[in-house]
Amino acid sequence: MNSAEQTDVLVIGSGFGGAIAAYHLAAGGAAVTVLERGPWLTAEDAEHDYKLGSSYTRGFDFTVGDGMSILGGNCVGGGSVVYFASMPRAPRFVFERRGSIGRRMWPAAISRDTLDPWYDRVAEALPVTPQDWHDVTYAGGLWAAACDHAGRTANPLPVAIDTAACVNCNWMMAGCRFDAKRSLLLNYLPAAVAHGAVIRPLHEVQSISRTDGGGYRIHYNVIDDEDYRITTGSGVIDAKIVVLAAGAGATPVILQRSEAGLGPMPHAVGRYFSGNGERLNTAVINEDRVAEVLGLSRGDGAPAYGANPIGRGPTVASWDRLDGSLPEYSRYSLEQLYFPPGLGTILAQAPDATDGPTWFGRDKKRMLSRWNSWLTIFTMSEDDNEGVFGPPPATGNAMRISQQMLGRGNLRYQPTANTRHGWAASDAEVKDILERDGIARVRPWTNDVVGAYTVHPLASCRMGDDPATSALDDRNELRGHPGIFVTDGSAVPGALTVNPAMTIAAVAERAVPGIVRAARERGVTVRYGAPAPDGATSGRRGVLPLIRT
Asked: Is the pLDDT at 508 greater than 60, yes or no?
């Protein structure tokens, strides 16, 4: 007798890849269960402090690897709860990238043109809106002024933010307590629940195995609400369809651990990891030169800039180097970024340090005293997909080091000459823009402490046309394992040169019709055609029936 719990569709993770699949499948009539490793944080839980146990540590997963560290969301809603809500679409050339394999990485079926309708659906659902210069923070305005002074261009970013509701508290990375950030807690996830989906926080999936009936059994542990190192229970759920969306740092680990129960994995599972070519530079602004050179003034004797703690996350980016005619590994975007105290104070290097490590010591202490004159610039470039996941830890995606947030993972990352070239070129451009006429002094963040770092991990179970270099087919189905789909950032084949949330979400939207067809073939009564989940958008047509397929 089989006593395991049953569901039609089991979704692992509740970020963009998981929430979108959960909504459409539940709205189509399937029984959907979502298992989320992290807690369920609401707007009231978004705390404005850095204490252990606050939303800053509860909602994040910081995994230190060998040469690369990953910072990601760890809560219901995933990265959407703690991201800065910048939602640009990937440039057209990204889909033609060849990367380290010497051939087009993306499936032939996907291009900017074919993905645009799915981008549109995401933009409608969240919704995503453009910003104008009245919405830009002072830090973003300074970056734009410096770009203009250096002969570059800069533009406000499209965002998933209700700018009228935003109070510029600058605690976006702790979650938005004003519900101004349009996280998945405000659209796809509540809509999924309204259609019967069940979301279970603090459920960490360990592995997947096969059932005698041709379905899948998902094995999970229940995690303590305060100390993520403690397991308070375990269980299994049987499903006909599995949607993996645990994030590019966890999805491959779950699949690696599942080989014993599923059989061999595609070669690309846990390989070709991309950190989205990310890099951070900190500029210490010279307040007098900013006033003299850029003509900025705040009056009343206030410093011309002095604005690091004012406003929200990224508001302005320079896309001058996103030119498809340029050689691969020389294209990148430069984005003004507010990064709160914590890693920023540790990893930022003192520009004028002469006595010992530039990220530590007396010069760094003097730099920290001027923290309100910092401007942080974020690079997203083209890396070489050089990350590889080693053998999985005993449980979870990492060996937990602290009560919350911190773990030691099995990712190995050795940046190639191509990746380093992109970093060096972008570092040089940031210096050229911000050190011109003495506006600032600039240094990149150090890699000496935690290696390279990314907040946008990608490609560790990527899709493609070549079975030798991709784990998924062009419908996001895991090769050799029908009925298992991957819809998170690990499915995206490579670095995007821009913030990837919009592309991850569009790829997930595109995958849903194929998941619905696979579910129907496995006996699930489900339809496709639910409207945009946000009732405030023009696409919401609650009175229309679902499209029968």
From this structure: yes
Q: Per-residue pLDDT tens for 252-262?
A: 999 999 999 99
pLDDT at 2 over 60: no
- Residue carrying structure tokens 């406000």: 156
Distance CA 352, CA 441 (A): 8
379 vs 398: CA distance, rounded Å: 27
**CA 542 centroid distance within chain:** 30
Cα 227 from Cα 435, distance rounded (Å): 45
CA angle, corner 441, sides to 440 and 444, nearest 5? 125
For helices 112-125 and 501-521, what crossing angle results, to 10°? 90
Q: Counting beta carbons within 10 angstroms of the beta carbon of residue 164, is it exposed (0 to 12), middle (13 to 18) or buried (19 or more)?
A: exposed
DSSP string, 519-538: HHHTT---------S-TTST
Write down the pLDDT at residue 169: 85
pLDDT confidence of 4, banded at 50, 70, 90?
Answer: confident
The residues with which 251 forms a beta bridge, in sequence order, are none
pTM recorded for the entire structure: 0.96
**What Å distances lie between residue 188 and 40, 130, 158, 528, CA to CA?**
15, 21, 19, 15
Q: What is the CA radius of gyration of the chain?
A: 23
Q: Please give the residue that has the higher pLDDT: either 382 or 342.
A: 382
Q: Which two tokens stand for residue 445?
A: 């963040």
pLDDT higher than 80, residue 1? no
